[in-house]
């Protein structure tokens, strides 16, 4: 059984789409897949959240579980405090992940925002969950200017917490990449201290399930069952520019 903790360098970097892409490839490869979203914020009880997007894109064979939902678009700790709803304990998250792991080949744990976003007043975070599970960490990063610092900070925190970063994935590659994005194809693995395991095109969250699977296969490393070659991609991207 395999567990991967999915964290971002911030919000809006394509973490849910990346999670769905990894799940889609695993399902296509015959694996039993679960996605755990410990805390969904900024979504009301009657509204679709990130897990609905995962199922829409990766298919109904994916098992999903959400532990808390808070209406305010804040960190889980702040949203819990404002709403008066119970905060999340990292032990509860780890137990839920372990339970899913026993019945699945791959369990993806998708955080809210970055690695140190707080779940409770004591400062528990996704980093604590990853450590307790002994899980590898996947960093989802932006493509352009400013991403190197955020990625390096995330990787450094992971290392200081005794975590292993398996790789970095660009969650939304622009149709017209600028010089910074092109340069970052080489520099992001250095910042992360881990390989570039994929580049997913911006906007694929609106694709059909078949188109999404094709994009996931092209955009993700063979480590996930895809065909992505970072050197080939960088060459093609530079030539296109």
Assigned CATH superfamily: P-loop containing nucleotide triphosphate hydrolases
Instruction: State the share of residues found in helices, binned by percent.
Output: 40-55%
The secondary-structure element order is EHEHEHHEHEHEHEHH
- The CATH topology label is Rossmann fold
Shape: globular
Distance between the termini: 41 Å
Compute the average pLDDT: 95
Tally of domains = 1
Please give the number of β-strands: 7
Structural class, from helix and strand content? alpha/beta
Strand adjacency order, main sheet: 3-2-4-1-5-6-7
Poorly predicted regions are none
Binding site for substrate: 41
Catalytic activity: (7R,8S)-7,8-diammoniononanoate + CO2 + ATP = (4R,5S)-dethiobiotin + ADP + phosphate + 3 H(+)
Family: Belongs to the dethiobiotin synthetase family.
Cofactor: Mg(2+)
Describe the SSE topology.
Layout: E1 2-8, H1 15-28, E2 33-41, H2 50-58, E3 63-70, H3 76-83, H4 90-103, E4 106-110, H5 126-133, E5 136-141, H6 147-160, E6 165-173, H7 179-192, E7 196-201, H8 209-219, H9 230-240
Helix pairs in contact: 1-2, 1-8, 4-5, 6-7
What does this entry look like structurally?
Pathway: Cofactor biosynthesis; biotin biosynthesis; biotin from 7,8-diaminononanoate: step 1/2. Its cofactor is Mg(2+). InterPro entries: DTB_synth_BioD, P-loop_NTPase. With 241 residues, the protein is of the alpha/beta class. The protein has a single domain (2-236), classed as Rossmann fold (3-Layer(aba) Sandwich), CATH 3.40.50.300. It contains nine helices and seven strands. Strand 5, helix 6 (147-160) and strand 6 form a beta-alpha-beta unit. The mean pLDDT is 95.
């Amino acid at each position: 059984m395999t567990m991967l903790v999915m964290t971002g360098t911030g919000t809006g970097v394509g973490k849910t789409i990346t999670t769905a892409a990894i799940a889609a490839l695993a399902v296509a490869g015959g694996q039993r897949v679960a996605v755990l979203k410990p805390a969904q914020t900024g979504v009301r009880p009657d509204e679709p959240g990130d897990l609905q997007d995962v199922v829409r894109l990766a298919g109904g064979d994916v098992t999903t579980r959400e532990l808390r939902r808070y209406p305010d678009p804040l960190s889980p700790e702040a949203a819990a405090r404002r709403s008066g709803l119970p905060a999340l304990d990292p032990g509860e998250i780890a137990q839920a992940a372990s339970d899913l792991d026993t019945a699945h080949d791959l369990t993806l744990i998708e955080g809210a925002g970055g690695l140190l976003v707080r779940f409770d007043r004591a400062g528990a975070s996704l980093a604590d969950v990853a450590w307790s599970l002994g899980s590898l960490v996947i960093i989802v990063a932006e493509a352009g200017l400013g991403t190197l610092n955020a990625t390096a900070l995330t990787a450094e925190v992971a290392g200081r917490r005794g975590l292993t970063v398996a790789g970095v994935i660009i969650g939304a590659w622009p149709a017209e990449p600028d010089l910074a994005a092109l340069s970052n194809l080489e520099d992001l693995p250095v910042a992360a201290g881990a390989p570039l395991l994929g580049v997913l095109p911006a906007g694929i969250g609106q694709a059909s399930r078949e188109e999404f699977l094709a994009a996931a296969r092209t955009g993700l490393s063979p480590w996930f069952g895809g065909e992505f070659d970072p050197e080939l991609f960088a060459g093609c991207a530079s030539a296109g520019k």
